[in-house]
Amino acid sequence: MGIRERWRAFWGGQPTELEPDRRLDLRTGFNVRELGGYAVERGATSWRRFVRSGSLDMLSPQDQERLYAYGVRLVLDLRGDHEVSVAPDKIARMPGVRFLHVPLYDIDLSDPSLEAVRDDDFRTLGYLTMLANKDAIRRIFSFFATAEPQECVLFHCAAGMDRTGVTAMLLLGLAGASRERIVADYCYSFGSDAEVDASVFGGKAPKRRELELRLEAIRTVLDRLRDGYGTVENYLLSCDVTREQLESVRSHLLT
Question: Are strands 72-77 and 152-156 parallel, antiparallel or unpaired?
Fold first, then answer.
């Protein structure tokens, strides 16, 4: 069972448990959701500025038009070279859309075929390896910084879970989101909002091992990053992203 089929089997169809206005209504996309509407230190994250998703290779012409009408003008593909070659983005070919491919990590950590070789540290080590790829992070945030005020940036990998999750973690951290909010946004790819919120904000132990492992992984990665750099901003500066670029990205994301 592939990523797309596994996702739909888990959710029983296109996922709708998350707030309807944060989940974009696409028939041929999956795990497509907004980073807008989150409370942060300086207000709230803006709508139609950053959207995260799974692969775009199966988008219908109608859904391509929906994303374009939504304001998507920048597309960042975080997948590996092979993934891009066999399943290229479709919306990236539309006139006026700027596209960048930056392989953040060449292994899809949510590929079901890898389950047999996973242990509890598999994802954590993978995420830390992504963060060690500082040139890729520099290219990603330099690209984000080019967005014009009314443009929406869409970033994705294969399932919109791991590579996309790490990138969303950095964006929300730069915006001043709380540790709990960053963890919850990541975990919405692996459970309903009620289940995730109960675990992240309510302190209830997850009933499923999958969600428990995901919570442990993202919390460990966040703590390692902050132990080493103090803030997400300091980490991004260590990747040679300039202060001006960081302020451009932050301003684009914040209301």
Answer: parallel
Q: What pTM does this model have?
A: 0.89
pLDDT single digits (tens) 87-145: 999 998 899 999 999 999 876 666 655 554 555 577 899 999 999 999 999 999 999 99
For 164-178, the pLDDT digits (tens) are 999 999 999 999 999
How many Cβ atoms are within 10 Å of 120's Cβ, its own excluded? 12
Domain extent listing, the chain: 3-253
Token reading at 42: 């300086």
Helices 122-132 and 134-144, packing angle to 10 deg: 70
Class of domain 3-253: alpha beta
Lookup: tokens for 78: 């975080």
- DSSP states along the chain: --HHHHHHHHHTSS---S-TTTB---SS--S-EE-TT-EETTEEBPTTSEEEES--TT--HHHHHHHHHHTEEEEEE-S-HHHHHHS--SGGGSTT-EEEE--S-SS-TT-GGGGGG--TTHHHHHHHHHHH-HHHHHHHHHHHTT--TT-EEEEE-SSSSSHHHHHHHHHHHHHT--HHHHHHHHHTTSS-HHHHHHHHTS-PPPSSHHHHHHHHHHHHHHHHHHHHHSSHHHHHHHTT--HHHHHHHHHHHB-
Can you tell me the distance from the alpha carbon of 15 to that of 39, in angstroms, rounded to the nearest whole number?
A: 23
